[in-house]
Amino acid sequence: MKNLIPIILIAYIFQSCMPTQLVYISVLEPAPVTLPPNIKNVIVVNRTLASDAAKPIDVVNKFLSLESPNLAKEGAEATITGLGDELMKNSRFTGVKALNNTDLRTNSPGQFPAPLSWDVVERICRDNNADALFSLELFDAESKISYLAIPTTINTPLGNVPGIEHQANMLTTVKTGWRIYDPAGRNIVDEFPISRNISYSGKGINPLVAAQGLIGRKEAVKEVGNKVGQCYASRIIPYWIRVSRDYYVSGTDNFKMAKRKAQTGNWNEAGDLWLHETTSLNPKIAGRACYNMAIISEINGNLDQAIQWSQKSYENYNNRLALYYVNILKNRKSNNELLKDQQSN
Asked: Phi first, then psi: what are they for 289, rounded to 5°?
């Protein structure tokens, strides 16, 4: 602990001497996938069941991967439910219908199959009054198991005696793949795979007892499948992220005072102090102040003003950090335009 004190002290002094500090803000990001505005009612289907021609291959694959057909079927159904539930929470859609009982099949179990024909897509959408089809095209749970024999001590009425504890470990990889079909434009809006790993372990006095501890993996696979469905929904729903921004905290007494105000959340009064320094005769100070005004403008949600201040900081005072920042702000402005389109749909 004594050796840590000088290190902590040095880190504190170093941080105190830095001309900038970080502020964290929340930013709404557009969804990776933009759906056409006509899509209001959607249907979610399961296409992962093997066709009659592919069933023999599917049985062999399930045997080699230590999984049963029922596990894959129930896992896929849980994935469909997860996506459907998440989509229904969003006001973007008027109606969401999840179907597990369609007669859709795949000739490539465990792999991304060829897309559905548009005749099939249009028929399903027409029969269910849907504008788009969300299809789970792939669901595969592949497991690998290993055993360890670990020396241990066993408590007996005669005292502690050496023994062996057997441990069974299983790693299951859940693979899913999705497509979104837009029948109106005959366009596949998205095609995306998602994989997740699950680990289980069991212990016992022999390998058989240890393996019995792995029985709960069925429910775990279904739970992961449900979460994967929820995760896929995030590709079409805007989401919040936390980002960091540097701002200047040194140069004049006003910067030092503004730093303290910013640390307590009093950003508007900090901004008043920075605004005063934008007219400084010292170009370095004026550049820093203009840059900080861009920061406070972004915090207040005024991206146009933030871009103007950051441009002034770089163009008039050659503040290099401002050039990097203006590109970030322009990208945010473009994302906001995309957000407006996604939210107006």
From this structure: -65, -40
